[in-house]
Amino acid sequence: MKRQRARAMSSRPRRIARRAANVLGLRRRRISWLFLLGVNNSGTTLLESMLGRHPGISKLPEEGQYLSRAFPTPNQLKVRRIWTERLEAFRKVLEDGGGMSAARLKWDWLCHYPVDGASRWLMEKSPPNTVRGPWLQRHFKPASFLALTRSPYAVAEGIRRREGHSIDRGARHWTIANRIMLDDLERLDRSLRLSYEDLCADPSKEMSRITRFLGIDPYPDEFLRESLPVHNATGEPSLVKDFNESSLERLSADDIRTIEDVSGDVMRRLGYAFASG
Questions:
Q1: Are 35 and 129 in contact (CB under 8 A)?
Q2: What kind of fold does domain 31-270 have according to CATH?
Q3: 31 burial class (0-12, 13-18, 19+ CB within 10 angstroms)?
Q4: What pLDDT digit, counting tens, does each position of 217-234 carry?
Q5: Burial degree of 185 (CB within 10 A; 0-12, 13-18, 19+)
Q6: Contact, 13 vs 102, CB < 8 A?
Q7: Residue 172 and residue 235: Cα distance in Å, rounded?
Q8: Where are the alpha helices (DSSP H) in the chain?
């Protein structure tokens, strides 16, 4: 044990040096930050997988919230997929300051992005970022944001299926996170709103919107014919496909009424039709 500890201590300066070299190399390039905003089960994993194949975009090996200790994670606070129940731990606003936390995030994240290559955009998609937009814009410059929404029926059903949380809790999570995100978008300089439904209906069109927004080369259509990791009921990779209908089929009439009672006002803001008619 002592030998292992000694080896770990002796290798720490080398790890720090490698990290510093990586961070310095990235800062010398003209990089920009790209944050994917969206509540859990809204399709951000699908969108990240699609964008991560573009040579102009780099992504982290996993969600950035798990690569830094700057902020707590939903798992640590026992609110996995329903982290708005501890909103005070995850919400960040401009008045909070937090320069040290931002510096720690950059230090922890930058060492995971490739130094070489043509990628100009560094992408991050931790779900709690959905309620941190203006704060991220202040501390990560320059930054752009892609805000992705999805039907609350599919989101609440997915949260119940994966975590066992009630439909009511899943719907409240969707409502709180999306209400804050929509309000925050008005304070962001560069943002683009997207929907899971549009992305699945016409992925080529939506990817064209994104690449024009980011000012990068068009997205290769052949990438759209490849399977991608998605959070569907089977857990298997899939082509870009809308799974909302299958989620709706797993909801009872009472479930649907509960979602509409909880989420109705934000559904109207986003233009989602009510399944109950």
A1: yes
A2: Rossmann fold (3.40.50)
A3: middle
A4: 999 988 888 777 665 555
A5: middle
A6: no
A7: 25
A8: 2-28, 44-51, 87-90, 99-110, 133-139, 152-163, 167-185, 196-201, 203-214, 244-249, 253-270
